[in-house]
Amino acid sequence: MFQKINRFPDNFLWGGATAANQIEGAYIADGKGLTTVDLLPTGPKRNEIAMGKLDSYKPKEGEFYPSHQAIDFYHRYKEDIVLFAEMGFKCFRLSISWARIFPNGNDLEPNEAGLQFYDDVFDELLKYNIEPVVTICHFDVPVNLVKNYGGWKNRKMVDFFERYTKILFNRYNKKVKYWMTFNEINMLLHLPYIGAGIVFEEEENKEQLLYQAAHHELVASALAVKACHEIIPDAMIGCMLAAGCAYPYSSNPDDTWKVMEMERESYFLIDVQSKGEYPGYAKRFFRENGIELQIEAGDLDILKQHTVDYIGFSYYASRCTSADPEILKNFTDGNIFGSVVNPYLETSEWGWTIDPKGMRITCNQLYDRYEKPLFIVENGLGAQDILLENDTVEDDYRIDYLDRHFAEIAEAIQDGVDIIGYTSWGPIDLVSNGTGQMKKRYGYIYVDRNNDGSGTLRRIKKKSFYWYKNIIANNGNQYFQE
Fold first, then answer.
1. Other C-beta atoms within 10 Å of 13: how many?
2. How far is CA 367 from its chain centroid?
3. Of residues 24, 124, 131, 184, which has the active-site annotation?
4. Which pLDDT score, from 0 to 100, does residue 336 have?
5. I need a labelling partner for 231 at 20 to 30 A (CA). Which of 237, 267, 332, 448 fits?
6. Residue 300 pLDDT more than 70?
7. Neighbouring-strand partners of residue 178
8. pLDDT at residue 350 tops 90
9. Which pLDDT tens digit goes with each residue over 200-210?
């Protein structure tokens, strides 16, 4: 009666994922304006700024800003896309830099050179039958909007963003069929400068401002969905969540409740984007914490009427938590979200738990919760790869990591989860968002660039390059038992 699922869907979108500010470089080329990430240096100041303590609205002498050159995809995209095509990519996730299109964010007319650059990139991808998957805003706010409007704290950002999205949809309506509004929208609550261009003043109520900014982004996202459906009726537009299931440290009901609270904090914004309304638990949180959102007439209707078509998400690690203060002393912040050390799991060099089973659990949880197609748009292992003298990188550890995660994705598909595709993070080595360094490498393609910006930028295939090529060629069917 019930037919067995024994393969990835025929149209499954295998590929890789990147962000403009981590690969493009050319940070003020051809009319581009400064973005928030262009003011993030390497070193200890980086995390302070990411949390909202920016001390300058222009680059400072003596600081190194890795986004300014990144891996120079702006000038080398054709070379890189050839490599993606050789691996057999069905899609490539990239983001558009808002300041490349509107240098100040609120310009009345777009920058034609910026629009043309993405036209050229999309044309190159389509030449090799690679579908562009485009994130409209990936930790990328024009600095002018931060300096003069306060970033997403300001309601005017909704109008600026709507104008930006309509330009994109009208320009690329024949070339891009998969869109996402905000990358990892829940990161706004954890890294407010990176997530929303927010710089805090000493006297400001941070929690009130964060959730008000979140409301602005939610309305802007819904308006983008509306515009996309009107301008490109055959397109799909989704949201994007920094995901990862959480486990109670013990069977104590208080630990289980702590997990639910942790997950709700992550799901909250996606609940609104997918279901079209603020959930009851969020309303209680606002009420009990004195948070009063300024909601304009029509906002709630906009949220309700323009929900996303699919759920994009990143999965790198699971988490573990407890209500016991003594257990919480064994807490690690290797990942932005942090976790109690899980004794059943190993960790990466950066302290992130390696939990393939968590991928299957996360897929099932999200599909059960939203009943919408999922798109795994970030996953991978950051490691300090070593380039050998014979121009090879023996990254068997990455192959092992991905192999175990792909097996669990196959299990999720057999569970009945509808998954559109998979784009591993950083298919070509890129600048780390967290540290600004190059040593945390994710790619199938090694880039000769060091933490200080030195290097030739030469591209070199790793062992995983050929392994992933084989996975794609077989559409992952090796993960299904006949």
1. 23
2. 19
3. 184
4. 65
5. 267
6. yes
7. 133, 236
8. no
9. 988 889 999 99
Asked whether 464 and 398 are in contact (CB, 8 A), the reply is yes
Tokens of 74: 């702006």
| Cα-Cα end-to-end distance for the chain | 18
- Name the one residue in this structure whose structure tokens are 């976790």: 339
428: which DSSP letter? Answer: B
Contact assessment for residue 141 and residue 197, using Cβ atoms and an 8 Å cutoff: yes
Tens-place pLDDT, residues 371-417? 999 999 999 999 999 999 999 999 999 999 999 999 999 999 999 99
Residue 262 CA to residue 265 CA, distance in Å, equals 5
Average pLDDT, the chain: 95
Position of tokens 């550890």?
397
378 is catalytic: yes
Tell me, what's the pLDDT at 333? 66
Tens of pLDDT, residues 450-462: 999 999 999 999 9
SS3 217: helix
Is residue 86 pLDDT above 80, yes or no? yes
DSSP of 257-293? HHHHHHHHHHHHHHHHHHHSS--HHHHHHHHHTT---
Q: Beta strand 178-182 with 131-137: parallel, antiparallel or unpaired?
A: parallel
**Residues 175, 132 contacting (CB under 8 angstroms):** yes
* Measured distance CA(151)–CA(145) in Å, rounded: 5
The two structure tokens encoding residue 102: 């509107």
pLDDT of residue 374: 98
Q: How far apart are CA 142 and CA 119, in angstroms?
A: 21
Q: Active site includes 389? A: no
Catalytic residue from among 131, 263, 378, 408: 378
